[in-house]
Amino acid sequence: MRIDAHQHFWSYSPAEYDWIGEEMRAIRRDFLPPDLAPLLTAAGLDGTVAVQARQSLTETDWLLRLSDSARLIKGVVGWVPLAGAERSVISRLERYCEHPRFKGVRRVLQSEPDACFSDDRFNAALDAIESFDLAYDLLIFARQLPAALPWVDRHARLRIVLDHIAKPVVNGAPAREWRAHIRELGWRPNVSCKFSGVVTEVPGWQWTPELVRPYFEVVLEAFGPERLMFGSDWPVCLVAADYARWVQVVEDLVRPLSPDERAAIMGGTAAKIYRITS
To answer: Does the bond joining 225 to the residue before it have cis omega, within 30 degrees of 0?
Structure first.
């Protein structure tokens, strides 16, 4: 199964998606399953994992309803408030896990201080996520990796998915610090990584395949094909690259690998981590 492990849907409104700034005005509109379906078909992809784009239970409910009618949505990574009372977190997870396509949870940590990693209520909620056999998507900037590493060790049995290779600034050769931290994360067998959201981390969005290749090589070495997955970050990626171009770039990057390794990155890893069977 070939899967896009990371994309978003939204019914756009300026108030609810205020993170889409003026420089991203090209994506200030609705993006729904009928918009994505022909792109998946053209790329030979069987489905996608829809990831939350705003921290709202309303959006999580909406994404799950979308998945009921759009068979291309193989899984949903939604938002659940993870800083509340443990009982309320468990109650919400119980309700969401009744839906077969609820596969994981994400909290937008990239805008939070490093102290969030030691918050007791947050960590208790992550224990609950693990107990429900869900994945947790880790959205951070590269500068947060040092704080995230001990947090990862605290949750050694939780399936953690690093989004967007930790969003380093993609400008020239990969920074030594980012390389070292990624390799250290790769030693943790419960952590996988999405090769997604890369082109939007290039200053001015002026990128080439040659620019992103060294970043791919770092995460491939750190995680191996069995813990690395392709993601488009559509429609956010559209400010820097159209869907077909990004798919082609990743296909070119994985071409030297074996058929099994290519299959893992282009869908097998996502199916395994998110427990997708059909």
So the answer is: no
CA atoms within 13 A on the CB side of 227: 23
Q: Specify whether the CB–CB gap between 47 and 4 falls below 8 A.
A: yes
Residue type, 133: D
The answer to whether the CB of 83 falls within 8 A of the CB of 119 is: yes
* Residues paired with residue 234 on neighbouring β-strands, in sequence order: 7
Q: What is the 3-state secondary structure (H, E, C) of 117-148?
A: HHCHHHHHHHHHHHHCCCEEEEECCHHHHHHH
Reported as a single tens digit per residue, the pLDDT across 8-55 is: 999 999 999 998 988 999 999 999 999 999 999 999 999 999 999 999
Would you give the distance in Å from CA 103 to the centre of its chain?
12
CA distance 185 to 223: 8
**Six token digits for residue 38:** 């022909």
Distance separating alpha carbons of residues 65 and 92, to the nearest angstrom:
16
HEC states along 65-92?
HHHHHCCCEEEEEECCCCCCCHHHHHHH
Q: Return the structure tokens found at 68.
A: 């009921």
Phi, psi of 51 (to 5 degrees): -110, 145
Q: Are 199 and 205 in contact (CB under 8 A)?
A: yes
What is the reported pTM? 0.96
Instruction: Please list the residues that pair with 137 across neighbouring strands.
Output: 106, 161
